Amino acid sequence: MIRIFDNEEEVANEIAREMKDRLINDHHPVFCLASGSTPQKSYQKFSNDADIHSKIKRLHIVSLDEWVGIDKSSEGSCYQMLNQDLFSQISLDGSQIEFFNGTSPDIEQECLRIDRFIEQHPITFSLMGVGMNGHIGLNEPGGPVLNRSSVVELSETTKIVAQKYFLKQTELKQGITLGLEQIASSKRVVVVITGERKAAIVKEILTNSDAQLPAQRLLGYEHIDFYLDAAAAKYMDQSS
After folding, report:
1. Residue 178, CB half-sphere, CA atoms under 13 Å: how many?
2. What is the pLDDT of residues 189-221, one digit of tens each?
3. What is the rounded CA–CA span in Å between residue 214 and residue 167?
4. Helix, strand, coil percentages, rounded to 5, for the chain
5. Cα separation of 188 and 103, whole Å?
6. 93-141 pLDDT, tens per residue?
7. For tag attachment on the chain, is the N or C end more exposed, with fewer CB atoms within 10 Å?
8. For residue 240, is it within any domain?
9. Both ends of the chain: CA-CA distance in Å?
10. pTM of the model
11. CATH code assigned at 65
12. Range of the domain at 57
Protein backbone atom coordinates (compact mmCIF):
# COMPACT_ATOMS: atom_id res chain seq x y z
CA MET A 1 0.00 0.00 0.00
CA ILE A 2 1.10 3.56 -0.74
CA ARG A 3 0.43 6.02 2.08
CA ILE A 4 0.94 9.75 1.52
CA PHE A 5 1.41 12.10 4.48
CA ASP A 6 1.29 15.90 4.44
CA ASN A 7 4.89 16.31 5.49
CA GLU A 8 8.02 14.56 6.73
CA GLU A 9 7.06 15.22 10.35
CA GLU A 10 3.89 13.15 9.99
CA VAL A 11 5.82 10.34 8.33
CA ALA A 12 8.31 10.30 11.21
CA ASN A 13 5.54 10.28 13.80
CA GLU A 14 3.88 7.26 12.21
CA ILE A 15 7.12 5.32 11.84
CA ALA A 16 8.12 6.02 15.45
CA ARG A 17 4.69 4.89 16.59
CA GLU A 18 5.01 1.63 14.66
CA MET A 19 8.54 1.00 15.91
CA LYS A 20 7.26 1.39 19.46
CA ASP A 21 4.33 -0.94 18.77
CA ARG A 22 6.63 -3.59 17.30
CA LEU A 23 9.08 -3.26 20.17
CA ILE A 24 6.36 -3.81 22.74
CA ASN A 25 4.15 -6.35 21.01
CA ASP A 26 6.45 -8.57 18.93
CA HIS A 27 7.47 -11.66 20.88
CA HIS A 28 11.14 -11.38 19.89
CA PRO A 29 11.59 -7.96 18.22
CA VAL A 30 14.35 -7.94 15.61
CA PHE A 31 14.69 -4.72 13.62
CA CYS A 32 16.55 -4.17 10.35
CA LEU A 33 17.01 -0.43 9.88
CA ALA A 34 18.33 1.80 7.13
CA SER A 35 20.92 4.43 7.95
CA GLY A 36 21.16 7.87 6.36
CA SER A 37 19.27 11.14 6.50
CA THR A 38 15.74 9.96 5.60
CA PRO A 39 14.95 7.99 8.79
CA GLN A 40 16.75 10.33 11.22
CA LYS A 41 13.59 12.07 12.44
CA SER A 42 11.84 8.75 12.97
CA TYR A 43 14.72 7.50 15.12
CA GLN A 44 14.78 10.74 17.09
CA LYS A 45 11.07 10.53 17.88
CA PHE A 46 11.35 6.85 18.79
CA SER A 47 14.32 7.55 21.07
CA ASN A 48 12.54 10.43 22.78
CA ASP A 49 9.52 8.31 23.72
CA ALA A 50 9.91 7.65 27.44
CA ASP A 51 7.76 4.52 27.24
CA ILE A 52 10.24 2.54 25.14
CA HIS A 53 13.28 2.57 27.38
CA SER A 54 12.09 -0.09 29.80
CA LYS A 55 11.58 -2.41 26.80
CA ILE A 56 14.86 -1.84 24.96
CA LYS A 57 16.54 -4.94 26.39
CA ARG A 58 14.06 -7.00 24.33
CA LEU A 59 15.32 -5.53 21.05
CA HIS A 60 17.90 -6.90 18.62
CA ILE A 61 19.17 -5.08 15.55
CA VAL A 62 20.49 -6.82 12.45
CA SER A 63 22.54 -5.02 9.83
CA LEU A 64 21.08 -3.99 6.49
CA ASP A 65 24.29 -2.95 4.74
CA GLU A 66 27.81 -1.57 5.07
CA TRP A 67 30.58 -0.21 2.86
CA VAL A 68 33.32 -2.75 2.19
CA GLY A 69 36.67 -1.48 3.45
CA ILE A 70 35.21 1.12 5.82
CA ASP A 71 35.68 0.56 9.54
CA LYS A 72 32.46 0.77 11.56
CA SER A 73 33.87 3.54 13.77
CA SER A 74 34.60 5.75 10.75
CA GLU A 75 32.47 8.80 10.04
CA GLY A 76 30.17 7.78 7.20
CA SER A 77 29.95 4.08 7.92
CA CYS A 78 26.42 2.70 8.10
CA TYR A 79 27.08 1.51 11.65
CA GLN A 80 28.39 4.91 12.75
CA MET A 81 25.32 6.70 11.37
CA LEU A 82 22.91 4.35 13.11
CA ASN A 83 24.94 4.47 16.31
CA GLN A 84 24.79 8.25 16.30
CA ASP A 85 21.12 8.50 15.36
CA LEU A 86 19.71 5.59 17.36
CA PHE A 87 21.87 3.06 19.18
CA SER A 88 23.57 5.58 21.47
CA GLN A 89 20.28 7.35 22.14
CA ILE A 90 18.55 4.28 23.56
CA SER A 91 21.51 2.73 25.40
CA LEU A 92 21.51 -0.31 23.16
CA ASP A 93 24.05 -2.87 24.33
CA GLY A 94 26.59 -4.16 21.82
CA SER A 95 25.36 -7.71 22.34
CA GLN A 96 22.00 -6.62 20.90
CA ILE A 97 23.51 -5.51 17.59
CA GLU A 98 24.55 -7.92 14.81
CA PHE A 99 26.21 -5.79 12.14
CA PHE A 100 28.26 -6.43 9.01
CA ASN A 101 31.99 -5.87 9.48
CA GLY A 102 33.06 -4.12 6.31
CA THR A 103 36.75 -4.58 7.10
CA SER A 104 36.58 -8.31 7.78
CA PRO A 105 39.34 -10.28 6.02
CA ASP A 106 36.63 -12.72 4.96
CA ILE A 107 33.65 -10.75 3.68
CA GLU A 108 31.91 -13.87 2.39
CA GLN A 109 32.02 -15.27 5.92
CA GLU A 110 30.35 -12.05 7.09
CA CYS A 111 27.49 -12.79 4.71
CA LEU A 112 27.10 -16.27 6.15
CA ARG A 113 27.26 -14.97 9.72
CA ILE A 114 24.44 -12.48 9.19
CA ASP A 115 22.39 -15.01 7.23
CA ARG A 116 22.67 -17.48 10.09
CA PHE A 117 21.60 -14.82 12.58
CA ILE A 118 18.48 -14.03 10.54
CA GLU A 119 17.63 -17.70 10.20
CA GLN A 120 17.77 -18.02 13.99
CA HIS A 121 16.22 -14.60 14.70
CA PRO A 122 13.73 -13.70 11.94
CA ILE A 123 13.32 -10.00 11.26
CA THR A 124 10.06 -8.64 12.67
CA PHE A 125 10.34 -5.05 11.41
CA SER A 126 12.33 -3.52 8.55
CA LEU A 127 12.57 0.19 7.80
CA MET A 128 14.01 0.81 4.36
CA GLY A 129 15.01 4.00 2.58
CA VAL A 130 15.26 4.35 -1.18
CA GLY A 131 18.32 5.70 -2.95
CA MET A 132 18.27 8.32 -5.68
CA ASN A 133 18.64 5.46 -8.19
CA GLY A 134 15.93 3.30 -6.60
CA HIS A 135 18.24 1.04 -4.64
CA ILE A 136 17.20 -0.70 -1.42
CA GLY A 137 20.01 -1.32 1.04
CA LEU A 138 22.86 -1.71 -1.43
CA ASN A 139 20.83 -3.76 -3.91
CA GLU A 140 21.66 -1.74 -7.00
CA PRO A 141 19.72 -1.29 -10.28
CA GLY A 142 20.86 -3.72 -12.93
CA GLY A 143 22.26 -6.16 -10.41
CA PRO A 144 20.93 -9.65 -9.70
CA VAL A 145 17.96 -10.10 -7.39
CA LEU A 146 19.64 -11.33 -4.23
CA ASN A 147 17.93 -13.69 -1.83
CA ARG A 148 20.74 -13.68 0.75
CA SER A 149 23.51 -11.41 2.03
CA SER A 150 26.03 -10.62 -0.68
CA VAL A 151 28.96 -8.45 -1.68
CA VAL A 152 27.93 -6.09 -4.49
CA GLU A 153 29.55 -3.64 -6.85
CA LEU A 154 28.31 -0.11 -6.14
CA SER A 155 26.70 1.96 -8.86
CA GLU A 156 28.27 5.28 -9.85
CA THR A 157 25.21 7.09 -8.44
CA THR A 158 25.67 5.47 -5.04
CA LYS A 159 29.39 6.23 -4.98
CA ILE A 160 28.69 9.91 -5.67
CA VAL A 161 25.68 10.37 -3.37
CA ALA A 162 27.38 8.55 -0.47
CA GLN A 163 30.16 11.13 -0.32
CA LYS A 164 27.88 13.41 1.72
CA TYR A 165 28.26 11.04 4.67
CA PHE A 166 32.05 11.28 4.80
CA LEU A 167 34.32 14.04 6.10
CA LYS A 168 36.52 13.81 3.01
CA GLN A 169 36.40 12.23 -0.44
CA THR A 170 36.32 8.47 0.13
CA GLU A 171 36.85 5.74 -2.42
CA LEU A 172 33.93 3.31 -2.42
CA LYS A 173 33.83 0.27 -4.68
CA GLN A 174 31.79 -2.45 -3.00
CA GLY A 175 29.12 -2.87 -0.40
CA ILE A 176 27.77 -5.75 1.63
CA THR A 177 24.01 -5.98 1.86
CA LEU A 178 21.03 -8.10 2.76
CA GLY A 179 19.20 -9.46 -0.26
CA LEU A 180 15.79 -8.19 -1.33
CA GLU A 181 14.26 -11.56 -0.59
CA GLN A 182 15.49 -11.38 3.01
CA ILE A 183 14.03 -7.90 3.40
CA ALA A 184 10.70 -8.90 1.88
CA SER A 185 10.57 -11.88 4.23
CA SER A 186 10.46 -9.60 7.27
CA LYS A 187 7.23 -9.81 9.24
CA ARG A 188 6.61 -6.11 8.51
CA VAL A 189 8.34 -3.68 6.13
CA VAL A 190 7.99 0.09 5.79
CA VAL A 191 9.70 1.80 2.85
CA VAL A 192 10.06 5.53 3.53
CA ILE A 193 10.68 8.15 0.84
CA THR A 194 10.60 11.85 1.68
CA GLY A 195 11.58 15.13 0.07
CA GLU A 196 11.15 16.71 -3.34
CA ARG A 197 14.57 15.45 -4.42
CA LYS A 198 13.10 11.93 -4.42
CA ALA A 199 9.97 12.84 -6.41
CA ALA A 200 11.43 11.77 -9.76
CA ILE A 201 12.50 8.33 -8.53
CA VAL A 202 9.10 7.85 -6.83
CA LYS A 203 7.44 8.45 -10.19
CA GLU A 204 9.82 5.96 -11.82
CA ILE A 205 9.20 3.31 -9.17
CA LEU A 206 5.43 3.58 -9.32
CA THR A 207 4.83 4.08 -13.04
CA ASN A 208 7.70 2.58 -15.06
CA SER A 209 7.49 -1.18 -14.81
CA ASP A 210 10.32 -1.52 -17.34
CA ALA A 211 12.78 0.25 -15.04
CA GLN A 212 13.39 -2.91 -12.97
CA LEU A 213 14.46 -0.94 -9.92
CA PRO A 214 15.17 -2.77 -6.65
CA ALA A 215 12.51 -0.74 -4.82
CA GLN A 216 9.90 -2.05 -7.26
CA ARG A 217 10.54 -5.56 -5.94
CA LEU A 218 8.86 -4.53 -2.68
CA LEU A 219 5.61 -3.42 -4.30
CA GLY A 220 2.47 -5.53 -4.08
CA TYR A 221 2.96 -7.20 -0.70
CA GLU A 222 0.27 -6.94 1.96
CA HIS A 223 2.84 -6.54 4.74
CA ILE A 224 4.92 -3.88 2.94
CA ASP A 225 3.84 -0.23 2.85
CA PHE A 226 5.48 2.73 1.14
CA TYR A 227 5.29 5.93 3.23
CA LEU A 228 5.72 9.15 1.23
CA ASP A 229 5.45 12.77 2.19
CA ALA A 230 3.64 15.18 -0.17
CA ALA A 231 6.92 16.48 -1.58
CA ALA A 232 8.11 13.02 -2.64
CA ALA A 233 4.66 12.25 -4.08
CA LYS A 234 4.36 15.47 -6.06
CA TYR A 235 4.27 13.76 -9.47
CA MET A 236 1.86 10.98 -8.56
CA ASP A 237 -1.35 12.70 -9.67
CA GLN A 238 0.21 13.74 -12.95
CA SER A 239 1.31 10.20 -13.71
CA SER A 240 -1.71 8.23 -12.50
Report:
1. 28
2. 999 999 999 999 999 999 998 899 999 999 999
3. 28
4. 40, 20, 40
5. 30
6. 999 999 999 999 999 999 999 999 999 999 999 999 999 999 999 999 9
7. C
8. no
9. 15
10. 0.94
11. 3.40.50.1360
12. 2-235
